[in-house]
Specification:
heterodimer; A: 130 residues; mainly alpha; flat; B: 81 residues; 434 Repressor (Amino-terminal Domain); two-stranded antiparallel sheet; 2 strands
Chain lengths: 130, 81
């Protein structure tokens, strides 16, 4: 059975916040498309996207700080796992790219990959304490 | 570390969830402590001892290896190999 507190990150309130931040980022990107590269408005929109990303990170940290000590430990271990696995995958794929596989824009995909691996890490690490 | 949490909780007829609520932690944390998979922090250990009206050393006692937890025991065994 899943422990609801461990997956507090999936609480409707938090998910709504993440969804709003993601929608805002995409909306800003769509608006920015029509603006000239290097122009002040486009740079301002890009900065706004970065602020939304920062808010998402701050929200995640806030949620994790509200968990109990074991849940925090599980999250920290899962994050360490995600960090290492992302590095290994990105570097590993760089070798494959050199061998002929199509290039991937890691500046765009590194974070989603890291979040996905964080969630996978949670499922793996929590088993240790069951 | 060994502990007597399960027996003391059962003596008071508390469920794991009820004890977790009193301690302000999750039920999984109580279960992990009871099964010896997780050693609580010192502040939580003191909260547990206070809740049951006991001294901390009456609640928790070191393993034969001198108090190293299950995890460190496993890693030291790995290191020996």
């Amino acid at each position: 059975m899943l422990d609801s507190k461990l997956f507090k990150c999936y609480s409707p309130r938090f998910l709504l916040g993440v969804l709003l931040a993601a929608s805002g980022t995409v909306a800003l990107a769509l608006v920015a498309r029509g603006l000239e590269r290097g122009s002040v408005p486009r740079l301002a929109l890009a900065a706004a996207q970065a602020v939304l990303m920062g808010a998402t990170i701050a929200g995640s940290v806030f949620v994790i700080r509200g968990l109990d000590e074991l849940q925090q430990r599980i999250h920290h271990e899962a994050l360490a796992l995600a960090f290492a696995a992302t590095g290994a995958l990105v570097t590993g794929y760089a070798f494959l790219e050199k061998a002929g596989l199509p290039p991937v824009s890691w500046t765009l995909w590194a974070w989603p990959l890291m979040v996905a691996l964080w969630m996978a890490g949670l499922l793996i690490v929590r088993r240790r304490y069951q | 570390m060994k502990n007597h949490l399960r027996a003391l909780r059962a003596a008071r007829d508390w469920s794991q969830g009820e004890l977790a609520g009193r301690l302000g932690v999750s039920r999984q944390t109580v279960n992990a402590i009871e099964t010896g998979k997780y050693d609580p922090s010192l502040p939580l250990a003191f909260r547990i001892a206070r809740l049951f009206g006991r001294k901390i050393e009456e609640m928790f006692e070191p393993d034969r290896d001198g108090g190293r937890g299950a995890e460190s025991e496993t890693s030291s065994k790995r290191g020996e190999r």
